[in-house]
Amino acid sequence: MRCRRICRELLWLSRFGELGPSSQPHLDHLAGCRSCRDEVGFDRAMVEQLRIALAARIENASPSSAAWERILVRAQAPEPAPAVRFWQWSTAVVGRLRFATAMAGTGLALLLALNTQVVGLPGTTDSSVDWERSTLQQVPRLPREQSALAQLTRAWGSNTDAGAQRPDPESILTVVSRPPVATTATGQADDPVEAPTELRLVIRPLQTPEPTRGASASIEPDGFAWQLAPSQPGEPS
Amino acid sequence: MQGGDLDAFEEFFNTYKRPVYATALAITRDPFLAEEVLQDCFVKAYRVRERLDPERSPLPWLQRVTINLCYSRVSRRKALAEPITSLITNLVVDLSARPDQVVESREVLDVLQRGIDALPPKQQTAIILYYLHGYSLAEAAEIANCNVGTMKSRLHYALKALRARLPVERRAPVGTPAAVRVTTR
Known about the structure:
The complex is a heterodimer. Chain A is built from eight helices and three strands. By secondary structure, chain A is mainly alpha-helical. Chain A starts with a helix and ends in a 7-residue tail after the last strand. The chains are: A mainly alpha, B mainly alpha.
């Protein structure tokens, strides 16, 4: 056994008072190894200091004489009704969750302050009434085959496909972000204030995975480089 | 006490108040907070007196309730009573030792006190039960509601963390000039 391991075991055994006949090899090593003796000696010294430090925390400390009277009064008081206990418990829970509540409130305030609109991806649903009512209804909806989900599916292939499709060498997912259209008093839509921002997500394989056993191959996410590149002017989106 | 006899309850309180208060004070380091915990603990014991097993010592149960109450309160009140600790530390230093030993010992105790405060609650509980109260590993494990192996592991990691807090020159082995000197009282 290496000295370091013996030392670790010695520390463990001596800390919990488990040195016994089976520890003879350890003790033999201890007798001849100054480094291990120092380690164990230091550990014992530290534990001794730890005991002193812990004892210092409670030295000459005892509960006040009024403690018993207070306990007696509280013990004889009727227990709170279940509804009251539930109220106390729920307020305690809310108190503990106040950080989460504050963060959610801040996020909501930021959302309102920045006039950000949260909408779903175009093409992910066809028959959502809420989508029709949204302020971004002017954004042309993509056909199903051009939707983000369809593009991603084409790019990544399908794990369940028996043909084990390999990914396209390079696939582009285009994300179009259009600012809300200002509306005049007569209800007519003005031109957008800013031009739409177009971002392309280029999915490019770093290393084409080889199918291992003929029929099925899974495509690991690590094999792709994700690039977020602005589209060039004039390129189709 | 199970029948609601207040005299028996007072006897029960007088028997167990010291270990309960010691645990509360060792964790919270605040006498007022420790007394609140003591009150809560005994009021709770009185309310659930019918469920306490008369055949077994109530101390492990009392200690477990105390520990839980302490940590639920300490997490609410992060600030701990620092000045009183340094006062106590100064008192426990062995004044018969040489001045350099006194300084070293005081420094080590300060480091250890801060180290104990910085330990995770489970490790802190382990060293309080094992090194302060002197419970056996099995008793400490029962109070902490874990098995003996887990208790050993918590103690081991607590000591490792405390050791790592000592300055490098003080971690030199005993026998060398810069070793930690233990001032026995």
